[in-house]
Write a structure and sequence with these properties.
It is built from no helices and 11 strands. The strands form 2 sheets. Strands 2, 4, 5, 6, 9, 10 and 11 form a 7-stranded mixed β-sheet that branches. The relative contact order is 0.32.
Length: 127
């Protein structure tokens, strides 16, 4: 099964930008819906954004619309999350996740839809 490794987390000031990357191993990456979730300290894991295997469909949580952009490069087996205009409330551990290959697009915001998870990357936004 695909394995996911995240990078790009760190500390940034409010209003700044950061880009997370998720490198995938395994030949099924290009056929899997991918997503980013986040979990703040002491909080439940929440959906951030998802992208279909072809990149033609995306879904965003209302809290990040207009600020975050999900993208993928299937040639490089890499998922990205561009985060702009960051706010202190964006502070969390960010996880990339993958669905089973060629799963039908739908309810991409549900944790239960995802089979494989990355180790997480800490993003801290200072005020």
């Amino acid at each position: 099964q695909v394995q996911l490794v995240e990078s790009g987390g760190g500390l940034v000031q409010a209003g700044g930008s950061l880009r997370l990357s998720c490198a995938a191993s395994g030949r099924t990456f290009s056929s899997s819906t991918m997503a980013w979730f986040r979990q703040a300290q002491g909080k439940e894991r929440e959906f951030v954004t998802a992208i279909s295997w072809s990149g033609g469909m995306t879904n965003y949580a209302n809290s990040v619309k207009g600020r975050f952009t999900i993208s993928r490069d299937n040639e490089k087996n890499t998922l990205y999350l561009q985060m702009n205009t960051l706010k202190p409330e964006d502070t969390a551990v960010y996880y990339c996740a993958a669905q089973r290959p060629r799963a039908i697009w739908g309810r991409s915001d549900l944790v239960s839809r995802y089979d494989v998870w990355g180790q997480g990357a800490q993003v801290t936004v200072s005020s």
